[in-house]
Amino acid sequence: MDWPTVITASYLAAVGQPLCDPADLDDLPAVVLCHDTADDPVFVFANRAARDLWETPLVGMPSRLTAPVDQRAERAAALSSSGVVRGYSGVRVSATGRLFRIEDATVWPVVDAGGFLVGQAATFDRVVPVEVAGHP
Q1: How far is the CA of 105 from the CAs of 44, 102, 116, 123, 129, in angstroms?
Q2: Domain count, the chain
Q3: b/e for 54-70, b at 16 or more Cβ within 10 A?
Q4: Residue 136 counted as domain residue
Q5: Residue 49 to residue 123: CA distance in whole angstroms
Q6: Would you say 22 and 49 are in contact if contact means Cβ atoms under 8 Å apart?
Q7: What is the CATH number of the domain that holds 66?
Q8: Mean pLDDT of each 10-residue bin along the chain, 136 residues long
Q9: Which helix (H) or strand (E) holds 45?
């Protein structure tokens, strides 16, 4: 599947404005990532900003692992919507254990050319470090 094309077309259909040209998605300064519709969804796309933020390739990884264990139920509930979610925020954890908060994310359903739901994507460009008690 041509994930950049499906992700950007779905964003336009769901949000009503273009995200970017599919060819520019990997280099977009904003984070863009997408997981599939499996019972335990795995990432099928992560642009360079997402890979840099999480410090790992992401593709093939279960998306639940991007949130700290104590935040996973909240994350799952927030992402259970079948429509567009705007203004989503939540704590995430990088591959090296660094905590950060994503803010004002937009989450949307990803639909293929045949109209079938094939994933869920998110984009955001606001990231705030999370300080852990006893650590700066």
Answers
A1: 18, 7, 23, 6, 16
A2: 1
A3: bebebbebebbbbbeee
A4: no
A5: 10
A6: no
A7: 3.30.450.20
A8: 98 97 98 97 99 98 94 82 90 95 97 97 96 57
A9: strand 43-46
